[in-house]
Amino acid sequence: MKKYKDIVGDGGSNIVAQVEAQHARLKARLAAVRHVVAIVSGKGGVGKSSLTANLAAALAREGAAVGVLDADLNGPSIAKMLGVRGMKLRVTEAGVEPPVTAQGIRVMSMDLLLPSDDAPVTWDATSQVDSHVWRGNMEANALREFLADTAWGSLDFLLLDLPPGADRLSTLAGLVPSLSGTLVVTIPTDVSHLVVKKSITVARATGAPILGLVENMAELFQGTGGEALAAEFGIPFFGSVSFDPRLAVAADAGVPFVTEHADTPAGRALLEIAGRVRATLDAPSHSRPLTSSPLPSGERQEPDR
Amino acid sequence: MKKYKDIVGDGGSNIVAQVEAQHARLKARLAAVRHVVAIVSGKGGVGKSSLTANLAAALAREGAAVGVLDADLNGPSIAKMLGVRGMKLRVTEAGVEPPVTAQGIRVMSMDLLLPSDDAPVTWDATSQVDSHVWRGNMEANALREFLADTAWGSLDFLLLDLPPGADRLSTLAGLVPSLSGTLVVTIPTDVSHLVVKKSITVARATGAPILGLVENMAELFQGTGGEALAAEFGIPFFGSVSFDPRLAVAADAGVPFVTEHADTPAGRALLEIAGRVRATLDAPSHSRPLTSSPLPSGERQEPDR
After folding, report:
1. What span, in angstroms and rounded, lies between the C-alpha atoms of B75 and A191?
2. Which terminus, N or C, of chain A has the lesser number of Cβ atoms within 10 Å?
């Protein structure tokens, strides 16, 4: 199996020594991004990546400069959903040039570094048996590299598609102190709400505002609605996206659903949700001048080892 | 937020010093379990937990002694799906007595230790910012405790419901050298197959046989079928479970679907899959006498720190 080190070459070796310089690059990269938004759920399979891909396309449609980072290292799917799977990465002086979709979205994902479909990401531990000792740390290092070493350029929105697991957002919030907010995704089942509630607690603890709650696969299940969940936690409800099998077809085909099916119930809902995300972030309390540094020198520097 | 240490009390403190004794307990516990089966997917939300709950009920229906360990610490849902949420754990000389469902299934889950719905599991790091350094290790420790300290008793089947993430199986295989096999779950979309393929590679690397592939939510999506995926990887195809919204209703209500809807297409498919799991494990090549030790002394002892 390919190890992360083999895949990224020099970028993966001597990782600790490079961290100082990486922090500076990360800071510079994020200073050129107006809004960094994490899409979280806790529960897997609720359509987090599909929502992320469609929000990116909806925002790009309105003329925004949009980037998407697939923060799911073990189950990356954004590159496929946005049609850039298999595209070559170009390394320039400015960093790794992310592939650009037909909609103009810049995409970075572990998927673009893996040699084949069935290659998992494994960490360079003595054996897989003790890989868990390193996993958390290596994942954080990989995400830091993706953020710092990708030539994102100037962006209005950088969307971060998080993996399932209520705990992953803490790691990311540590890497991105300038996180503008989180968007929480659920489906209308009690089982999903149970898991999503834990994510809301983690999202609150990051200090970044929870922008809103989105419900996917509405009408497919008969459980409690996302609107009630949002009300329970005092979070804005951003809307319900009906289940439409063409959402999965679009994801498999690599063309965002909103690009081809804007005038459907699910398409309209997605465009409306994108509008709410944009309006919330562009409200005076959220705006941040492009030139400001998101990481005041010496603040929230995270210990690395 | 509650820390894992607060939740488990003494069991969580001085964890390293207790490991030696825990290894011995783990060994003794697993010696009384005929078959340990991991249910994996890589992709979240493909109905892994629902399948686990229904397999457990189907096997128990046939008179087997069945236990289920919810190995998803961050998004536990098995306790709810099997109707034991909120039940008190009883600590006896033999260990922690797992709640028993109406179907006779013994269940252990992080969910039974959490004080409220919205409480996530957090690890006792200096700050959440560097929690990722400890996460992998603490998760492995928690799973080891669940396996070693639960009074499972004699079991025919212990089903382990794994969290999403292709990498989690390595950790578990390190803890359970006697793993009888893995069951891989997918849904008929290319995006799911892409992630599941990585899990198949990880599952193969554990050395435990892949028992079969199960397809959930058949007919809901129009993508490639699980049967083709199974054929591509030379894995037995165990069957397709049609999408039935009552599967989610049953999960929310805590009554296994097969208990109330055995005579439906999805119910029959689940019972058949359980029969295949049983037949595969009871085949001569898989059988292991109840009294044998699964951990030859000194073998595959994992370094702990």
Report:
1. 9
2. C
Question: Which among A118, A171, A305 has the least Cβ separation from residue B198?
Answer: A118
Q: What is the pTM of this model?
A: 0.85
Neighbours of A117 (CB within 10 A): 18
DSSP character string of B112-136: GG-SSTTPPPB---SSGGGHHHHHH
Q: pLDDT by residue (tens digit) across A196-241?
A: 999 999 999 989 999 999 999 998 987 779 999 999 999 999 999 9
A47 to chain B: closest CA residue:
B45
Helix (H, G, I), strand (E, B) or coil at A236: coil
d(C-alpha B82, C-alpha B106), whole Å: 10
Q: Which of residues 34-63 of B touch A (CB under 8 A)?
A: 42-46, 49
Residue A258 sits at φ, ψ, to 5 deg, of -65, -20
- CA dist A176 and A194 (Å) reads 27
Which residue in this structure is represented by tokens 């289920």? B68
- Interatomic CA distance for residues B98 and B294, integer angstroms: 22
- Tell me phi and psi for residue A53, to 5 degrees: -60, -40
Residues of B in contact with A221 (CB under 8 A): 245, 248-249
Q: What is the DSSP letter of B229?
A: H
B32-63: pLDDT as tens digits: 999 999 999 989 999 999 999 999 999 999 99
* Distances from the Cα of B131 to the Cα of A142, B125, B244, angstroms: 16, 5, 39
- Which of B100, B55, B102, B50 is CA-nearest to residue B78? B50
CA distance B17 to A299: 36
B119 inside 8 A of chain A by CB: yes
Query: What SS3 class is residue A103?
Result: coil
Measured between CB atoms, which of B120, B129, B233 is closest to A166? Answer: B120
Give ∠ CA A256-A259-A264 in degrees, rounded to 5: 100
DSSP line for B12-74:
GTTTTTTHHHHHHHHHHHHHTEEEEEEEE-SSTTSSHHHHHHHHHHHHHHTT--EEEEE--SS
Quote the distance between the C-alpha of residue B48 and its chain's center: 9
